[in-house]
Amino acid sequence: MKRPRLVASDLDGTLLAPDGTVSPRTAAAWSRLPALGIESVLVTARPPRWLHPLQDIVGAHGLAICANGAFVYDVSNRTLLQSQGIERSLVCELVAELRAELPGVGFAAELADGLHMEDAYPDLHSQWVPADAVRAPMDDLADSAVVGKLLARSMQVPEQWFLDRVAELVGDRAVVSYSGAGGLAEIAAAGVTKASALARWCTARGVDAADVWAFGDMPNDLPMLRWAGTSYAMVNGHPDVRAAADHVCPSNAEDGVAQVLEGLQSSGPGRG
């Protein structure tokens, strides 16, 4: 199989261990890629601030694609370099429509410069809520706010029904993704996915899709896996992801990404 020019990986459920850390084996395999002439990039649903503890594995370029493709973030310097946000008017429109149709729904917005969340939003990751998070209704979003992701969640209805209904109501006005976080609908601007952001990243570096290997585990990874020339689903991943990928690798608990990359590293220079 042809050796890649670039490896792209999701984080949670994929490159990271179940406890959210990078195992020594995975860190070693990932860090050896540059010596093989292979670039790497993290492509994650996480917002920028969630990447700070992972600075050591970002790579020499120091950048990561985050918020499902809405942001390109310089992790080392904690600087946002690129953003593709949802227009504030559309955010307010979607919030009003979803609130009218979905019992108990609460909202939050991952912004270019922080987090805005309603009191009614059932947060799953309180340990990641920054001290300067704005707690106010979504109607109070600043006119200048750059919304990378609008988050919607309800504890009053079945998870899959909620996700399907959000996608139905949003339609083609935005992209609705699911990254495995307890019924959390993640809404991005139309056309913004991990795949679109990774394609721009690769074009800027003269890398064709055929020369990309991508790893993922959840439905929000599907566009990226379908775009990449070679795709790997984690065995612990969503059934739809396993069915769509070219290959299935061992779980993140077993350093599955590292196991695949070690095969590259043991095959010598040139083609693996």
From TrEMBL:
InterPro entries: Cof, HAD-like_sf, HAD-SF_hydro_IIB, HAD_sf. It holds the Pfam family Hydrolase_3. GO terms for molecular function: magnesium ion binding; phosphatase activity. One of its GO terms (cellular component) is cytosol. This is HAD family phosphatase.
